[in-house]
Amino acid sequence: MKHIYYTFLSGFVCFLALVFPLDLSAQCSTCPGGTPSLTIEHIVVLDTTTASTNTISFPKFPTATGTLVCATLYDTFSLVTVSGARNRDPYAKVARFLLSLSPSITGPGGMNINDNVMRSYGPTTLNSFNTPGDSTTYGPDTVFNNVHHQQTVTGAGAYLGAGTIDFTFDISGGLIPQLGGMNYNLSVNGKLWGKFKLVYSYCPTTPLPEIFRQFTATKQPDHTIKLQWNVSNEEISNSYEIEISYDGRTFVPAGKIAGQYAAQGASAKYNYQFLPDKTASGKLYVRIKQLNASGHGRYSAVRQVGLGTNTPVSYITYPNPVKDQVTIQADQPLKGRYRLELVSGAGQTVFTHTLNVNNSSILQLNIPPGITPGIYFLRSRALSDGNIQTFKVLINR
Fold first, then answer.
1. What is the Cα–Cα distance from 395 to 392, expressed in whole angstroms?
2. Looking at the chain, which terminus has fewer C-beta neighbours within 10 angstroms, N or C?
3. How much is the pLDDT for 75?
4. Which of 230-244, 276-290, 330-344: highest mean pLDDT?
5. Cis amide leading into 321 (omega within 30)
6. How much is the pTM?
7. How close are the terminal C-alpha atoms of the chain, in Å?
8. Out of 2.60.40.10, 2.170.150.70, 3.30.420.130, 3.40.50.20, which CATH number does the structure's domain 208-309 have?
9. CA nearest 134: which of 81, 87, 66?
């Protein structure tokens, strides 16, 4: 009788330091007003285990916090194995084996992360069954060393509410004979450990104050960032603090100016020049904090600017959903003629508008009254070089 056994049992001890080299944020949407979505993070550490199937549980997203946009799962894990084979035939043979293991993480909303590893062992001479030399072991072998993955799902209804959301972390597979017949006792003994993070990206329930709807951040030729914002219902005692972030989550003060001493309740326009760190790269996130006499603050939307001399132009759109007017804002001054096109989900262009731009970072499109509410694509075409930017917008009157 042929005997083939695949097991995942306790074996040896081999500990490696666990690192978590993952992005700290999962910004997968822009909220109304151009603000990047906020995040809530949960981390679960899987201690060293010999189990091949584990349940990883996180708290669900509390609906009172805001509107959940997406959920992103990050994983980092390590697996060390010892594989064994024993010849069951009454004669000696030369054997070769393939170790094939497939970890997977599955969860609600279509979350499905998969990986695979294969290792070849042999050729190895195994004596006849029940004689010295009829067995061999391979390992300890670090088959996964702090590997990491991530996946984002947007159909996140199952993540809402009270209680927990569960993910199944499973490793399947085993040792497969490739040479020397099939009559073996086979085993895979291993230890597994890891770290898992679930990030909820959401838009807060409280809308941004209307006073900050007009706020731009534009990169200048001298590498400074020009900030401009308009406020309404100005209070004489107001002051404004500029806050910056290089990751979109952690903001620090970078400057402060006093309010204009206009009449109470009047409108005011502000300008501020900010010089970012010359060694910084990637994106810079900027917001304005309005402080009144009692020290209470209100925040603007967040604007982003690409850093570096060769950084391509970065764009955002707001508001979204759109009612009457949508704005495309660049992080650099624009020049020339631009054609804005509103395209239906079926690919039909339902409205176009051409405008001239001269050193402005703003492109605006007024939505005609006859446009039916729904999801559209807003396309910006630079007529000088044909450069096209496309944004998804929801028209909701």
1. 10
2. N
3. 95
4. 330-344
5. yes
6. 0.52
7. 74
8. 2.60.40.10
9. 87
